[in-house]
Description:
single chain, 233 residues, Rossmann fold, two-stranded antiparallel ribbon, 6 helices, 9 strands, 27% helix, RsmC/RlmG, S-adenosyl-L-methionine, SAM-dependent_MTases_sf, Small_mtfrase_dom
Amino acid sequence: MNSTASxxxxxxxxxxxxxxxxFKAIPATGKTIKYLGKEFLVYPNTxxxxxxxxxxxxxxxxKPGESTLDVGTGSGVIAVFSCYAGAAKxxxxxxxPAALKSAKHNARLHGFDKIMRVKRSNxxxxxxxxxxxxxxxxxxxxxxxxxxVVARSQWDTDFQTNTRFFQQVGAHLKPGGRIYFAHSNFxxxxxxxxxxxxxxxSVRAMGSASADKAATKTFFVFLIKPLRRDLDA
Length: 233
């Protein structure tokens, strides 16, 4: 995907800050968001379903009976679509209590509360020993200091979350497992590719979608797989 498209950093900053204010300002009873023909409820301080995850959702392939893990689930939208795709078991994790409340509600709303487990975890901390066929992630795109849990849905202080993800994700993939990883043209694309390479993964860019006609905010998905190693080497 083209990661060098022109965009104004200050404009992206303003846009993201305004979105964070909107996430915080909705009523305590929540707000209904329409997304890819379905409805989701988000409570205050939860990242809303948006164009950023659409390439991932549209590209996602889950074989019948497979297990999936959605890291940084937010409203649970990707996890819910994993259920629709045919996953037998879906785990959705986040560190934000408001996001967990939203994700649990949406699992029930779509009738997947017996398939979809929502759990508080900082990445893989509460998943020791668990492995999955498919791991999905829509982590913060930018290496920028995040002052609170809402900002952490968009900014990754010192890129700590993304770095830990790639260092640890391999231990949670079953043989033949794969990762669907959302990203954007205004994110740290080179760093993501480098982290993946350093930790033994191949990266292939898949579909994309733009949030504006000028394509200043373009989102895409990487299909990431462990590199094959020569067992005779």
